Amino acid sequence: MSEHSVVAPKLDAVFCPKSIAVVGASSRPGTVGNDIFRNLLFAEFNGPVYPVNPKSKSILGVRTYPKLTDIPDDVDMAVLIVPSSGVMNVVDQAIAKGVKALVVITAGFKEIGPEGAALEAQLRDKVRAAGIPLIGPNCLGVINTDPAVRMNAAFGRKMPSVGNLAFVSQSGALCASVLDYAEERQIGFSKFISFGNKADVNEIDLLDYLAKDEKTKVIAMYLEDITNGRRFMETVRDIFWETHKPMLCLKSGRSPEGARAVSSHTGSLAGSDSVYDALLVQSGVQRVDTIAELFDYATIYTAQPLPRGNRVAIITNAGGPGIMATDAAVRCGLKLAELSESTKESLKKSLPPTASTRNPVDVVGDARADRYEAAIRTVLSDKNVDMGVVILTPQSTTEPTETAAIIPEAIKGIDKPVVCSFMGAKDVAGGVKLLREAAIPSYPLPEDGIKSLAAASWLVALQDLPRRQTPEFKNLEVDRAKKIVADLLNNHTERYLTQADCRPLLSCYGLPLLKSAIAKNVEEAVKAAESFGAPVVMKVMSADVVHKYDAGGVILNVHGGEEARAAYNKILANVEKAVPGAKIEGILVEEMARKGVEVILGASRDERFGPLMMFGLGGTLVEVLKDVSFRLAPMWQTSAERMVRQIRSFKVLDGFRGNPPSDVPAIVDTLLRLSAMVCNHPEISECDINPLIVHANGEGCSVADSRIMLRKTK
Fold first, then answer.
1. Alpha helices, H only, 381-498
2. Does residue 70 sit in helix, strand or coil?
3. Per the omega criterion (within 30 degrees of 0), is the bond before 634 cis?
């Protein structure tokens, strides 16, 4: 269990206040102070609302008070719409008055620079010392549509309809657009929160509260950053696996940022967005790319049952869109349901001879509402079907409105998600409106409906994941590894470790190392090569030569002493030419690994989120292809398994063109051991094992090269 928010229990005062004061309420139309006060009144808030304004006697017929402390009755929540310079004074009044919660709409804090940040820090410290939760500053406000509350303490244009979707946003401006967009799609909300600069209450506190909110079935969020990655992941994991509430996140800032000089592939590939991707997928949160996609998924989660599997049936009156939907289903990982023979026989009785009774079921272009009704009920009643898509194109005999009207009746009693795609605009508008009123999602294009069903299928599969625990290895030499790290960092702030330096540390964690020896001179190289009795690889060991292959510092397939002598001298010459003056610690003579697939395992350390693990196909092209996956460490067993299977080129490991399947369990074991190592030793800032040679299934894997960057911790 995570360390749950100490703020969340106090948020009832924000969402269910018995009385509200609007400090900075205004009688002037078009101002924020007027909009919020008006919204509270016209939404029929179930409690008294007190306008506070020293320059007006009344606002919208309600008596005003010069100061918050002049209100004679108790005030649960105060909404502040005063200049930033006056906020602290009002907060002092709120504390004196015994106000239980604050929403600070006012801007002019950390978003304007250091001076504003200092003021915001004072504000945060003051409310936390008083134990008063604060939403904002620099936010749109808070809405609770519950009929028992009816609170619109925001300056949006309208009160949204009642629903079971909660929306949490770091951007106030986006909130206004979302409210308008949701109204057009007839989507209601349980709670709607703009939390702005999150000086006090942050997204973790809000999620913890919404997890327990009976009115909220689905949580959607727009985030620009995450306050505490570890706590976020622990809190959201608890929400997802304990309540099974779907969570969607639109996280802005996908472009690379904060680039710095790094010595590893992992460090160069792990941008900030990779960290967020890993964080969200490990938390059970579905990341979306657009507002439209967010609501595409939310409309299924809020109104439809979740599927029991990934078998989809498609019913259409046009062959082309049916094929488009089929292609999309395959692309998204769904399976086309195989209809039973009894279902096909039933369809033959209600469909014309020209119709297709195979999936996708084509009811033919002249299909009217009754034909759709028969096909929908028959197909969705099939035990081989987990979900359905109904496609309608407006042809001359089509009845969009009548067909939309019969669909709720046709699926009555069928506990499976159904989405529609009434393709077009004007001709199908009436039907789309009826579908949305009946809480049946309708998408302009069938691919969008398929993608949303695939998201629901992914969600269900995630809820049922086994092996949700971090494995404990019994054969680790953690204390010895700590001493090795301390000795290596002695008198160094940071230190790059060559492969030879890495080996003792990796051996403490049971990583599969090959037989090797360090040669300080040519005779030692000859002796080592002869003693192995097998082909060897020879590599330069130098902190100055990061990319050994590029510098000619690696020679493969060296047989016997004489070839070793020649290889030793050639490596020295190559390195001197490529990196003049490089300090060479020796030449590593290592047995050649058996044939297998080259993969890369890596780790880097994010300042806010800690160690980040990477996996992908290895070799020199990893930074070009960028076919890699990331997870935060420590990892669950299942996280490591999914991480390996996530890369686009996993087929290479699964057996390709007659090659045997690779030993994927050995990769997973090595990943988890590496994860344990970087978690136990915060001095490891970057690490690459590239390549790890993966042999055939059951034959393990071999570390063929490695490098580590150590940095002293503060």
1. 400-410, 429-437, 446-463, 478-489
2. helix
3. yes
Does pTM surpass 0.85? yes
Structural domain contains residue 159:
no
CA distance 77 to 73: 12
For residue 2, the model assigns a pLDDT of 43
Q: Do residues 442 and 564 share a domain?
A: no
What is the rounded CA–CA span in Å between residue 432 and residue 426? 10
**Within 13 Å and on the Cβ side, how many CA atoms surround 400?**
23
**How much is the pLDDT for 621?**
61
Amino acid letter, 91: V
Q: Is residue 149 part of a domain?
A: no
511 within 8 A of 674, measured Cβ to Cβ: yes
Asked if residue 699 belongs to a domain, the reply is yes
Residues 317, 199: Cα–Cα separation, whole Å: 54
Average pLDDT estimate for 522-542:
93
Measured CA to CA, the distance from residue 300 to residue 415 in angstroms comes to: 13
Nearest 5°: CA angle at 178, between 172 and 182?
Answer: 155
pLDDT at 537 over 90: yes
Q: How do residues 266-305 score in pLDDT, each as one tens digit?
A: 444 545 677 888 889 888 999 999 999 999 999 999 999 9
Cα–Cα distance between 545 and 579 in angstroms, integer? 7
Residues 337 and 251 occupy one common structural domain? no
Q: Is 704 inside a domain boundary?
A: yes
How far apart CA 32 and CA 153 sit, in angstroms, is: 11
Q: Per residue in 602-653, pLDDT tens?
A: 999 888 788 999 999 886 666 667 789 999 999 999 999 999 999 988 999 9
Q: What one-letter code names the amino acid at 458?
A: W
CATH number at residue 231: 3.40.50.720
First to last CA, the chain: 29
Task: Tell me, yes or no, whether 609 and 588 share the same domain.
Answer: no
Number of CB atoms found within 10 A of residue 397's CB: 11
Q: Residue 649: give its domain's CATH number.
A: 3.30.470.20
Give the whole-angstrom CA distance, residue 675 versus residue 640: 10
Give me the pLDDT at residue 185, please. Answer: 86
Q: What is the pLDDT of residue 187?
A: 92
Q: Residue 221 is which amino acid?
A: M
Are 406 and 522 contained in the same domain?
Answer: no
> Do 320 and 213 reside in the same domain of the chain?
no
* Calpha distance 23→453 (Å, rounded): 46
Per the structure, the count of domains in the chain is 4
Task: Looking at 131-227, list the stretches that DSSP marks H as alpha helix, in order from N- to C-terminal side.
Answer: 172-184, 203-211
Q: Considering 243, 264, 285, which residue would you say is the last residue of a domain?
A: 264
Please report how the helices 478-489 and 664-680 are oriented relative to each other, as an axis angle in degrees rounded to 10. Answer: 60
Helix (H) or strand (E) holding 574: helix 560-578
Whether residues 189 and 202 fall in one domain: yes
Judged by DSSP in three states, 391 sits in strand
Q: Are residues 577 and 606 in the same domain?
A: no
Same domain, 228 and 345: no
Rg of the chain on CA atoms, in Å? 31
- What the block records as the tokens of 475 is 């054969």
Cβ atoms 92, 123 nearer than 8 A: no
Q: How far is CA 207 from CA 128, 175, 218, in A?
A: 19, 17, 11
CA distance linking residue 461 with residue 439, whole number of Å: 24
Domain that holds residue 545: 515-592
Tell which residue, 156, 135, 178, 121, has the closest CA to residue 43.
Answer: 156
